[in-house]
Amino acid sequence: MNQQATKTGVEVKVQVCVFAYNLENEIEGSILSIIESLGNYEAEVFIMANGCRDKTVEKARKVAQQHANVQVIEIPVGDKSNAWNVFTYQYYTKNAIPIYVDGDLELSDDAISNIIDYHFKYSQYNSISSFPWEHGRNALSWRKDLLEQHQFTGSLYLLAPSFIGKIIDINVRLPFGLIGDDSMLGYLAATDLKQNSDLPKERIGVCQDAIFKYESLKLLSFSDIKLYLRRRVRYSIRYMQQSSIVPQLKQHGLSYMPDNASYFEKDALPPIRWASSNFIFDLIANYTLTNKKNVINKRVEDSH
User: What positions does the domain Glycosyltransferase 2-like occupy (predicted)?
Assistant: First the structure.
């Protein structure tokens, strides 16, 4: 499966990594929209089905039977950061253009083609962020922040082959259990894997023509309310993990990247944000992370 396209006479190899966790209702549409958004490019599409307990794998394989460039990779553990590592270190081909997509999204026409073209036009960027469609919740403010701050979007993004090559060369991996792979990758891209060199506007591009669509939550839907509350807890966990890990990276370098996001110093977690709407979710996140750390410590003690 060596699908290639030509750009200005040079062969271009594109690989798309799709993260899928219990997405039986979304995965087929997502894969088909990815294929349709390739334009004149061809690509290998890897469905990283991690820890799925529904029919995600079955439905993804159904699509793969009709499209020879689609592979379904089953990973027993449901962990997006681990799935990122598996693709990057086991399936990524050197010098290929890697594009990462969340499997619950649908892409607009030529989204992947446009983000690849943007990469060729602005090859100085370590990563290229995509753009949310205008009909989503908070889309306008999100778009504004992306353009002003050159934020990293984890929904759909491209990493420059030279940049991911450096990541692999120095064996940088995302910590297992990390919530917010996008925040960490944004930090790595903005710093160019260096200490005290945070320059997002120089190192992260934003392609306004690579548009992804997402379903807004419904206020009157009980299932959507539960999903919203789970997301808020995850956002608090992300905040606490990043606040405990990134300062160590800034002070000591990437050698201090933990293997597991639950490995943190006793006093490393940030304070609860009491004077905000986050405080309840911060309390839950703090308890969750502390409990995970205690479980890991006990396992280590029992092994000695």
Answer: 16-145
